[in-house]
Amino acid sequence: MGQIIHVEIVAESHDRAAEFYTKVFGWQVTPAPVPDGYLLAETGAGEGIDAAIMSNRYQTQQTIAWIEVDDLEATLDAARGAGGTPVGDIQELPGIGRLSYVRDTEGVLIGLRQERT
User: In terms of Cα–Cα distance, which of 13, 23, 107, 117 is closest to 68?
Assistant: First the structure.
């Protein structure tokens, strides 16, 4: 629990950003099934994590780290207790798990994922 599992790069033009990361780093970018304006980015083989590039109509912070948690509700409660603020509703993404966002005490947006069981 607590390991960074994914990073989202938020862009005014997600297509333009995808072209940049493809040309500069060789990432393989493909559209996600949902939502519109969300691209999955395979960053390469071996150790490391993959990423996504998404439209800023969903979030405005430029980069969002995603953290794997065992219990989404307990983590949101712990975040509240530590001065953080849950953002939005818990979402179920088929085949992936349950997702939510939280802002830390400094206003940084963090994604949380509880794997589906």
Answer: 117
Q: What is the pLDDT of residues 23-32, one digit of tens each?
A: 877 899 999 9
CA angle 97, 32, 72 (to 5 degrees): 20
69: alpha, beta or left? (left if phi > 0; alpha if psi -120 to 50): beta
Which pTM value belongs to this model? 0.74
42-55 residue pLDDT tens: 988 888 888 888 88
Helix (H, G, I), strand (E, B) or coil at 25: helix
